[in-house]
């Protein structure tokens, strides 16, 4: 689950991570009030920042410097309600519903600090770079020597000497060095205790006063661990998510929209990936990833059909079920019932294999529904190929 910048900063602040003071606003009046409050606390300049789940906000016009409360009002009027387009939102952009008003910081130098899981080493890794304020992927490609890493042994955790090495790698000295060490230690603690998959500060800045502060923050939480964090789960902003993916989640389906022309419905993530390969081999492109789980029934299948058919690019649907926990004849009955309830206007191919596969295929063949049934993967691929008109 992704968090907004202001939410990430609130969490980090609780763990003692030094963050830039700010107030979130959902209206121009709230933005003006926030700026006045910051001004009363000593702020003389402000930054108005769009809150969406995407990077590159500044390049898209979603981050503006304001030298007065009046300029905050002007920028808030322009940013709130705009459709912000960045390299991460895609051409459709994302509607800005919230903005963050922060106290502008005197930046002397920018750094990058990030924590994530290194799956190859099966350890968390902390990465730092003196090249902050730019995309870390660009730094990794063009100047990989500028990135320094420390892998954390899960049995002993982050040790102070590792944090000191990373702070040295950033070139920090004196007061800034001590603050940098504390910052890294606190950031890692926040990452671990919130079950994050990534905690990224870009940029981490050294101010003119020698302080080390996070002026931006990105945190993603492991969905599978949200049951341990009711407070964080309550931060979910469904407006930032694909509506069909939200609907799928409500039905217990794992769904990710893609750009292809063949919808697929499968039980099991591994089989879903293989099904997507089959579709490509047949000359098509998968329109989605959809895993109905190991206990598919008529209700979940029907919900799956409705979600897939919301995509206007879908020219055919391939249902690929391996009967293990759930019997194929039960799935076949569910498909038939769902097809009766949903107006399926594209060719439907159903491949059943495993427990009671023959019985399930017979039910499909004998039904009044226009369904192409298959048993072998090759057979399913050929029928998909024929359905989308690929020679």
TrEMBL record:
Binding site for Mg(2+): 202, 216
InterPro entries, per the entry: ATP-grasp, ATP-grasp_succ-CoA_synth-type, ATP_grasp_subdomain_1, Succ-CoA_synthase_bsu_CS, SUCC_ACL_C, Succ_CoA_ligase-like_bsu, Succinyl-CoA_synth-like
Protein's pathway: Carbohydrate metabolism; tricarboxylic acid cycle; succinate from succinyl-CoA (ligase route): step 1/1
Binding sites annotated in the UniProt record for substrate: 267, 324-326
Textual note on the cofactor: Binds 1 Mg(2+) ion per subunit.
Binding annotation for ATP: 49, 56-58, 105, 110
Enzyme class at the top of the EC tree: ligase
Matches recorded under PROSITE patterns: ATP_GRASP, SUCCINYL_COA_LIG_3
Any single GO BP term: tricarboxylic acid cycle
Catalytic activity: succinate + ATP + CoA = succinyl-CoA + ADP + phosphate; GTP + succinate + CoA = succinyl-CoA + GDP + phosphate
One matching Pfam family: Ligase_CoA
GO MF, any single term: succinate-CoA ligase (GDP-forming) activity
Cofactors demanded by this protein: Mg(2+)
GO cellular component: cytosol; succinate-CoA ligase complex
Record-annotated ATP-grasp domain positions: 9-230
Keywords: ATP-binding, Ligase, Magnesium, Metal-binding, Nucleotide-binding, Tricarboxylic acid cycle
PANTHER family: SUCCINATE--COA LIGASE [GDP-FORMING] SUBUNIT BETA, MITOCHONDRIAL (PTHR11815:SF10), SUCCINYL-COA SYNTHETASE BETA CHAIN (PTHR11815)
Subunit structure: Heterotetramer of two alpha and two beta subunits.
NCBIfam families recorded: PRK00696.1, sucCoAbeta
Family: Belongs to the succinate/malate CoA ligase beta subunit family.
Protein name: Succinate--CoA ligase [ADP-forming] subunit beta
Organism of this sequence: Longibacter salinarum
Gene name tied to this protein: sucC
